[in-house]
Amino acid sequence: MRSGKLKHRITIQTPGQIRDPAGQPSTGWTDFDTVWADIRYLNGRQFLTSNAEANSATASIRVRWRTDLSASMRVLYGAKVFDIVAVLPDEEGQDHVDLACVTGVNNG
């Protein structure tokens, strides 16, 4: 995989136990890994929900080959949160993994 295409620095997070400000255990997101990626937006839409306007976008995030990613994780890129819908590995060449993601309506 050509490193020039991987120009976005993302953080992959996994759900887990964290401590709230009072020190009590709580469910939240913990950083799993920070990697370089290529983010491509595939489509977007705007809709009404609960009398409020909302936006959603579908994206493909490509990272180097790895086997430890799952659809229960999420991706952070700056202030954007991407929910991983599917992990699509390049089984033949084992060169990369595509993460099918949605943003805009997410697990926050």
TrEMBL record:
Residues 1-10 have a biased composition (Basic residues). InterPro entries: Phage_SPP1_head-tail_adaptor, SSP1_head-tail_sf. Residues 1-27 are annotated as: Disordered. It comes from the Bacteria. This is Head-tail adaptor. The lineage of its organism: Bacteria, Pseudomonadati, Pseudomonadota, Betaproteobacteria, Burkholderiales.
